[in-house]
Amino acid sequence: MTSNCKTNLAxxxxxxxxxxxxxxGRVHAFVTLSSQRFKTSxxxxxxxxxxxxxxxxxxxxxxxxxxxxDSPPVPPSIPPPLNENDIQPFEATPEFLIAKxxxxxxxxxxxxxxxxxxxxxxxxxxxxxxxLGKVDYLAAGRFFDLxxxxxxxxxxxxxxxxxxxDSLTVRCTVRTLGTMRGSLRLRNQIVQPNGAQWRGxxxxxxxxxxxxxxxxxxxxxxxxxxxxxxxxxxxxxxxxAATVAGVPPSDWEVFSATSVISRIFGRPVYPLEEVTTFLAxxxxxxxxxxxxxxxxxxxxxxxxxxxxxxxxxxxxxxxPVGKKAYLESYAAQEFQRxxxxxxxxxxxxxxxxxxxxxxxxxxxxLEGPPQAFSFSFDDDGFCTRITAGAVMDPTIGxxxxxxxxxxxxxxxxxxxxAILTRPLPLALGRIKxxxxxxxxxxxxxxxxxxxxxxxSNVATAKVEVDKSASALTALQESLG
Length: 480
Known about the structure:
This protein is α+β, with helices and mostly antiparallel strands. It has 14 helices and 18 strands.
C-alpha cells in the first residue's frame, strides 16, 4: 500500500513538472511572437509616416499642457465667438422646445445657466410695468438668490405644452416646494431662516424661443393660477418666498384698490386644504368632457344644474363667491359677446379632481391675453369650483393685460382708472409711462426696453436727417 502511494506521488510530481515546463515554453513562444509582431507594426508605421510611432503620443493631456508640478492647470484658450452668419438655424420641433424649456426650469429659470437666454431677452412679471433685460434679470436673480434660501427648492414643473397660437412658445406649470434653511435677502432687509416649508400655488411660466438660435427671448413667470392654493397667499417668486419668511408684502403692492377694500370689509380668504388623494373620480377623457359641458353651457349660466351646491368661483381679484352670486353677477359676463379659443385640456397631476384649459378670449375689437381656467368636479360629476382669468402673458392682446369684464371694457376704451384695476405700484408706473410717452414714445401697454426704444428713435432720427440732407443737396444743385 505504501509503495503504491509513493509510486503515484512520484508519477504526479513528474507529470506536474512536465506540464509546467510545457506551459512556460508556450508562454515564451507567445511573448516572443507578440514582440516580433509589435516591432513589425512599429517598423511598418515608421515606413509609412516617416516618424516613430512613440513620437505621436502626446506628452501630456492638452487641458493641462501648460501646467507644471508647481503651478495649477491652465485651461485652453477660448475660441472666438461665432458670427451671426455662422449660427445655423435649428429645427423648432415641439420635442426640442419642450426639452429646452425643461432645461430653463432645471437651472432656476436660467439664472444658473445664462447661455439659455438670447441677447435680446426680456422678462415679464405680473407686477412689473416695464420688462427686465438679460443683464438686469440675471442681476436680480443672483441678488435675491432663492436657491441659497431654499437649498432643496423644487419647481415641480409639469404640463409642458406648445402654445396653440405660437409654435415658438412653450407654457408650463410649476408648483414651488422648498424649505427655508438660509437667510433671504430682500431689497431693504435680510430675513433669517425659520425652517418653514414653502408650498407655492400653481404658477404659469411661459417661454418664447428665437427661431434661429433656440435661445429664450421672452420669459413670463410668477403668474399665479390659483391664489387659494399653497401657503404663500397666492404669491410666487420673491414675494412668495418673503411671505413664507414672515415678511409678506402689503396688499396694496399685490391687489388693486378695489380688491384691497373688499378684503378689508369682506370675508377672509382661506387657503384650500392640501389634496391628499391622487386618484381622479373619472378617467381623463370623461373629466375633459365634463369641462367642455360647462363651457358649452356658457360657464353653466344656461344650465345651473351642472354646478354643485357648494360651488365657488375665484379670479385673481374676485371671490371666492358662491353659486348664487356667481350665476347672477359673473357667469354670463365672463365671455359676453366673445368667441374664446380653448386648448390644451389637461388633468392636474397634483389635484386629479381638476381640469385645466388654456383660454384666449376673442371678440369684436378684442384680443385677450392667454389665460388659465380650471374646473373641479366631485365624485358625482358636479362642478364644485371654477378659477378664471389667470393671465399667463400680459404682453399679448389689447386689454392692457386685464382679464374678464375689466379687460373687455379696456379694449373698448371704457376701462376704469388704473388705480381701481391694478396694484398701486403698477398703476403709478402706468401713469408715469403715459406722462412720459411724448418723450419716450413708450405707451403704457408697451413692454419694450427703454434702451431698445431709444435706439429705435435714434435710428429714425438718422433716417430723417439723411432725407433732409439729401433734399437740401438736391435743392442746392437745382439752384446752381
